């Protein structure tokens, strides 16, 4: 499967961040979906079955832990076993702790370095 057919779901409430991530990933051949809330992201993950989901560490309606656990415990195996990357600052990583962060396939620290993000996406999709 080539990069052209791979989809990234970005669960992020900040439109400016989403626009930059969308532009950057599309420039590298990914299809990008965007959800502004955890609840919307969960519905999109179930409907579209993205290849990888980026979960922001600070969403308006749910914590990143709640989104992660909802995805990991989903009844559809394609959702529960999907690749999930947490995007969070040090404060959020410290708050969630190693037991939660271990359930993410990768963690991308904030502020995001876009080449690092692309590298982490490539890494989880190649695993």
How would you describe this structure to a colleague?
30% of the residues are buried. The chain contains six helices and five strands. It is 49% helix and 20% strand. The longest helix has 13 residues, at 15-27. The protein has one domain: Rossmann fold. It is globular, with a radius of gyration of 13 Å.
Distinct helical segment count: 6
Judging from the principal axes of the Cα atoms, what is the shape?
globular
Spatial ordering of strands, largest sheet: 2-1-3-4-5
Report the span from N to C terminus: 13 Å
Summing up helix and strand content along with how strands pair, one would put the structural category as alpha/beta
Can you tell me the CATH topology?
Answer: Rossmann fold
According to DSSP, the number of beta strands is: 5
Rounded mean pLDDT score: 91
> Strand share of the residues?
15-25%
> Residue ranges: pLDDT <50 for 5 or more in a row?
none
Percent in helix: 40-55%
In the CATH hierarchy, what is the architecture at level 2? 3-Layer(aba) Sandwich
Biggest sheet details: 5 strands, parallel
Give the CATH class.
Alpha Beta
The Cα radius of gyration reads 13 Å
Overall domain count: 1
Quick structural summary:
This protein is of the alpha/beta class. It is built from six helices and five strands. Helices cover 49% and strands 20% of the residues.
Features:
127 residues, alpha/beta, Rossmann fold, 6 helices, 5 strands, globular
Layout of helices and strands:
Elements: E1 7-11, H1 15-27, E2 31-35, H2 38-48, E3 52-56, H3 64-72, H4 77-80, E4 83-88, H5 90-101, E5 106-109, H6 114-126
Parallel strand pairs: 1-2, 1-3, 3-4, 4-5
């Amino acid at each position: 499967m080539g990069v052209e057919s791979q989809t990234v779901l970005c669960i992020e409430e900040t439109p400016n961040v989403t626009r930059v991530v969308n532009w950057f990933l599309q420039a590298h051949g990914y299809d990008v979906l965007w959800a502004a809330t955890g609840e919307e992201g969960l519905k999109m993950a179930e409907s579209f079955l993205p290849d990888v989901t980026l979960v922001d560490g600070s969403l308006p309606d749910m914590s990143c832990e709640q989104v992660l656990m909802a995805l990991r415990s989903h009844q559809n195996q394609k959702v529960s076993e999907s690749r999930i990357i947490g995007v969070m600052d040090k404060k959020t990583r410290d708050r969630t702790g190693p037991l939660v962060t271990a359930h993410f396939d990768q963690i991308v620290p904030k502020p995001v370095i876009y080449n690092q993000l692309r590298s982490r996406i490539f890494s989880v999709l190649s695993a």
